[in-house]
Amino acid sequence: MALVDFQIGLARLVGAQQGTDPLDGLNLDPRESQYLEAVQTTSGFLFSRSIQRSWCIGRAAKGAHLTLSFLPENQRQQLLDEWIDSGAGNQSFFEAEAGSFLEFISRRLINPSHELSICQLEQTTLRVGEGKDNFVPPEAAALDYPHCRLSRGRYAGLVEFYAEPHRLLESLQKHEPLPPLSSEVTAIFLGPGVPQFCHTPSSDEAAVWDALQVPQSLGVLHSKGHERDTLKRLLNFGIIEYSDQIC
């Protein structure tokens, strides 16, 4: 067995994903395979694996701290265990890991719910943070070309709350029950060009966001009554962006 195969085998065993064969594809003879199988029951190996798992859990929890804070302890632990057992938790880039974990959580939350709103808020905040340092409002001249296409901003998002957002955060801080779901939705835009990164959309702005579930040409948007000033404002906020390089 080459030394590199031995090292790869040990590394895979430490972070082994449930339902997978960590030794698959390695150039091992029967004696070497038996050794690596046996080492998994030793106290030193089990300690190393527990340290690695604890580190991965702590890193994932940090990446979704606010969302997990709104969940009961048993649900938090279940989500973290499922995430780590899937083989995740050890990506090199923290932001990418956090975004993936938040997406994983969001698919397991009731829609609508306060917990999902907070999860989407944390997801969008992460995207805004990724784009804010390099964001420059684009030129508005391309808004005069009907064939130019617009899309939702890569570093933006619309989050809907079913209670006043400050009430949710106060409930968390005071360890009080969350308020009941309201039939009145409070929506906020977050984007890299928004002052304080948070903006309450007008009905026209929200309608543009809804229209851009898929990219649309300016001609189509204008035909639906979306005005140039609204589009320009959302471009300046980074809420929407040009989807064609020629724009």
Question: With helices defined by DSSP (H or I, 4 residues minimum), what is the helix count?
Answer: 11
What share of the residues lie within helices? 40-55%
Structural class: mainly alpha
Could you tell me the strand content as a percent range? 5-15%
Give the biggest beta sheet.
3 strands, antiparallel
What spatial order of strands do you see in the largest sheet? 4-1-5
Instruction: Note poorly predicted spans.
Output: none
Instruction: Report the span from N to C terminus.
Output: 57 Å
Number of strands: 5
Measured on Cα atoms, how large is the radius of gyration? 24 Å
What's the overall average pLDDT, rounded?
Answer: 88
C-alpha geometry: globular
Q: What oligomeric assembly is this protein in?
A: single chain
Element order: H for helix, E for strand: HHHHHHHEEHEHEHHE
Primary descriptors:
247 residues, mainly alpha, two-stranded antiparallel sheet, 51% helix, 5 strands, 3-stranded antiparallel sheet
Provide an overview of this structure.
The protein is mostly helical and 247 residues long. The chain is built from eleven helices and five strands, in the order αααααααββαβαβααβ. The chain has helices at residues 3-14, 30-39, 43-63, 65-69, 73-85, 94-106, 114-131, 165-173, 203-211, 218-223, 228-237; strands at 149-152, 157-161, 186-190, 216-217, 240-242. A three-stranded antiparallel beta sheet has the order 4-1-5. α6 (94-106) runs antiparallel to α7. 26% of the residues are buried.
